Amino acid sequence: MTHSRRKGARGETELAHALNGLGMFAHRSQQYCGKAGDADLIVRGLGLHIECKRVARPRINDYLKQARAASKGRPFAVF
Predict the structure, then answer these.
(1) Mean pLDDT per 10-residue segment, the chain (79 residues)
(2) What is the pTM of this model?
C-alpha cells in the first residue's frame, strides 16, 4: 500500500472513531476493496455519503464536486 493510501486509510479510521465517540455507528466502507464510487465512511441509519480527505493543501471545491457526484442525490459531507 502506498504512503498516500495508508494516510487516507488512517484518516478514515480516525474519523470513524471520532464519529463513534459521538454515538454514531460509523465504519469504513468497502470502497477500499475496489468498489469505486462508494463513500469513504458509512454511518448506520444516517444515509449520509461521507468523503474523508487528509491532505496538506485542500481543494474543497474538487472534494465537494466528487462527493456530490458519488452521493447519487443522497446528503453528503466532506471531512
Answers:
(1) 83 93 88 64 86 91 93 91
(2) 0.79
